Every structure is written in C-alpha cells, then in structure tokens.
Amino acid sequence: MKKSKYFIKLEIDFKKLQKHIINELKSIDSKIKIHKTNWKYKTGGGGLSCEILGNNIIEKGMINFSSIKGTVLPESALAKKIKGGIKNFVATGVSVVIHPNNPFVPCSHMNIRCFETNSSSKNSWWYGGGFDLTPYFVYKEDIMNWHRSAKRVCDRYNPKFYKEFSKNCDEYFYNKHRKEKRGIGGLFFDNLNQQNKDFYSAFLNDVGKTYIESYADIIKQRYRKKFTKTQKEFQYLRRARYVEFNLLYDRGTIFGLQSGGRPESILMSMPPKVMWISKKNSILNKYEKDLKKFL
Hints:
Layout: H1 5-28, E1 33-40, E2 45-53, E3 58-70, E4 89-100, E5 107-117, E6 125-134, H2 140-155, H3 161-172, E7 174-175, E8 180-181, E9 185-192, H4 197-222, H5 229-248, H6 251-258, H7 263-266, H8 282-292
Antiparallel strand pairs: 1-2, 2-3, 3-4, 4-5, 5-6, 6-9, 7-8
C-alpha cells in the first residue's frame, strides 16, 4: 500500500527524534558506546536499532526507529477490532528504554507509533504511545516532576488527556501475576484517531521530546549518589520484574515477535543483569517494602 504524506512526514520526524534522544544521552554520558544496526523487514521497510552500552552513567539502553510494511497485522497491534479487513499495513515508531548504572536513577521507557492500513473502516489509521518511569529507590520530587511534565504536554493538546492516559498507564504497566505496578506511571495511549493526523503527529513528537527532557533532569539529579553492593543487588531484583512484564504482557514485544521482526532489536530493551532469588535478607525486604508504598 502507498504511504500517506502524513506517514512519510512522521517517519522523517521520528528519525530526527531518535537522533535528538541519542545526542541528549551522549551529552550526559560521554563514555557510552553506541552500536547501530540497519535492518530490513521481510515484506518491506526496516529500521535503525541503536544499542547503548556503558559502565558509567548508562549501563544499557536502546533507541530504535522502525518503519515497516506488512500484509498481516498481528492481533497484538489492535486496540479495537477493525471492520473491513486488512490486507496491508504500514507502521512506524520510536522505542526507547534506558537502564542506568546507579540504582538511584530510575529505568525509563518511551514509545510512540503510528499504524495505517488499507481498511475501509474509519479506524484505518491510529496513533499510540507513552512513557513511564521505573524507580528502585523512590524520590517523591522525581514522581511529582515526572507527572507534572506529563500533564503539561497533555494539556497543550487536550485537558482531558492526562487523567485518561495516566490511568491507562497504571493499568497497562501492571504485573498481574505479582499484583503490582511496574513503576510509578506516566502516560499510555492507543487507538487515537478522533482528531486529524497533523494533531496527533505533533502530539507524539511533543511526547517524545518531553520524555527525554524530563528523564535527563532526573539522571543529572541522581547519578552521582553513592550506592552499596546491596542496593545494586536490589536493582537487579527489580529489573527482573521489568523482564517479566516485557515477556509476558508488553504488546510491543509481542507485536515484534508475532510480526517476524528482528529479535535482537525487539529484545534489546532487556536489562544487562538481573536476579531472581526466593529468599531475601532483611535489608532487601526493607527496600522492597519502601518501594511498594508507591506501586
């Protein structure tokens, strides 16, 4: 199918956003190494995967751009059933996950995406995305600033967005088998197509820029704080919950695997080191109890 002019413009904007986020992170941590991989999708299109590795401020991260063409849209991509049948689709997006070295710096995630199909339904295109924060040791001012930034970007487009998208985030990023939220929330939205495409394209780009500005502020506040071996161990334990969510529930991971995407790019979001232990000592139990007050 032929890409719309809006889709082509969004591809360009997303590539620029990917570069912007990379440059922001390099300005914070000049020692990171970035491994770039250009890849092609089996039925058309492809992407640029950027894996970040370091042992200073950022331990591991990914900033990935993709734009693909397909013939069978996986069920995981659909927030609602679409009438009229889908024989072709195009999808583009930017995905970011950052795993910091210091356990006092939260992990963060951001994703924005657009789908267009050949369906005759009014839901033949839609936009989605959001961002969220996963701390190991919680600072109330970080939570307040994170949500304040999320509300500010939403209010520029619709004063009803923040309340709805924040609630969506809490409900979506939830480990059902653990009965706990993955982090302290943010924004999550999908199936947006009530306004025109220019409106949502601007909103998605603004969400991406707000994310990196907000997260960079938190990194700068926390990365110098001294930490112990036990605090690092607790970070590994909480990272395991992140892995559990991504493999069991995350629609982006499921979509990538169902659609035959590049596994190395899809699983690049995983943290570098994790731990699962059944019995924790009193210090680790205290850290978990303190954290769960906010989850």
